Amino acid sequence: MDLSAHPTVERLKRRNRPIAADLGEPLDAAWLRRVVLDAGADDVGFVPIDRPALDDQREEILKAFPRTRTLISIVVRMNREAIRAPARSIANLEFHHVGDVVNDLTRRVVRILEDSGVRALNPAMGFPMEMADFPGRIWVVSHKPVAVEAGLGRMGIHRNVIHERFGNFILLGTILMDAEVTQYDRPIDFNPCLECKLCVAACPVGAIDPDGAFDFSACYTHNYREFMGGFGDWAEQVAGSKSALDYRRRVTEPESASMWQSLSFGANYKAAYCLSVCPAGEDVIGPYLTDKRAFMNETVVPLQEKEEVVYVLGNSDAEEHVARRFPGKTARRVGNSLRPRRVDDFLRGLPLVFQRKKSAGLSATYHFTFTGAEQREATIEIRDQRIEAREGHHGRPDLCVVVDCATWFGFLAGEKSLLWALLRRKIRLHGPPRLLVKFGRCFPS
Ligand code: B12
Ligand code: SF4
Question: pTM higher than 0.90, yes or no?
Fold first, then answer.
């Protein structure tokens, strides 16, 4: 279709406006930095799309915005005392407010760029995400590795980015932009994390190991009780209740009220204590350096001693952690909502739900052969309390498991019985069955 005579094109020509801006020259980094800081950011850095650190997410970024040439990483500070408060409504107000600030300011910067003829896009700080992909990768861009590359901090033991001045009291945002800039940033050359392990001591579910390993399912089950997965479990409690009285037996009144609050005002985090207690960062470290014991008593102990319900999965390391470390807290078992339905999600999800302590003493290689809807092979190795899942068959197996996909994922979701599947030969084992039982013990129920 020839649009050269269309009224819009005619008007553009009459006003002498370019049909498509051709920047040619890179944007001035100092100008862009000023624009972002004036919009309300506390720090900003620039990363080119071809940085090797972005290799594992470049495809996703380009899927969201194929013209991406530069990533603008931004930091917005959170008020520290709010994040430390044992009354978590105060902390949640700060999380939500600063989250909105990040989204507002990235949007404002994109508008300024758009008005300057530069195409750009601002993915969410957190939510909304691509829930159609749940329980796979639901976020568009991983802000943490971008911020690290942009020189805005490094990840501490608790896997949050610690800014050299503001510590971990920050939220992150990223803008994808179709232009180069005159100067890019580089990661800082030291890690502000002090390795004090206060985050390890404060986490109610023991999600952070002193060696930096992270028990994703423990954090996700408790801290995210009123987000996607926990909400699904709550909805199943509603559906499964025979009467109002039965519902009241399953869900306490404070829990119903809290779920209402999350649905009305935005989902609330249950903990985030790892951020609350972190003393790292130039502006933060003073009180800790002055008197470590007083800092502990003021910031860590009130969270450790807070009497509260802690949500855990059955057969989880977290359940034992609460009982062992926090007598004032009550562990409450809830349903597991991470149910893979595809081989990729299963393999990717295994390290996320792996229970390190429960795997003690197990050293085995498993060959999985998936049949039915997906014809795939995978090797899963468990040794030294670590798990590795790989595509294809590798090494000598201690147990071979041949499974029909629908049956296997149905079994994992609690919809099908293992005994039924074994009898119907939907799951076949070559090797000692006890190894399958031991495999099962490494995961929560
Ligand atoms: C997924 C996610 C989570 C997950 C996993 C956490 C994690 N360590 O990555 C859960 C739900 C547990 C979580 C918890 C929290 N999060 Co969060 N989260 C994200 C998100 C959406 C992506 C994280 C990411 O980049 N992962 C990839 C790599 C870099 O991370 P990784 O640690 O190597 O690997 C983990 C993930 O890949 C994850 N994973 C892998 N597959 C899947 C699949 C699903 C369905 C999910 C949910 C996760 C998941 O598990 C891995 C093992 O830990 C970002 C927002 C964003 N769009 O970037 C915020 C973000 C990382 N979260 C943030 C915050 C503040 C929190 C909490 C404090 C929330 C709170 N207020 O209570 C806690 C802190 C827990 C902790 N110690 O890490 C901030 C961190 C700010 C900072 N200073 O670094 C971010 C950057 C949001 C933001 N815009 O500021 N979060
Ligand atoms: S609390 Fe201590 S160990 Fe944990 S991230 Fe902060 S500085 Fe590092």
Answer: yes
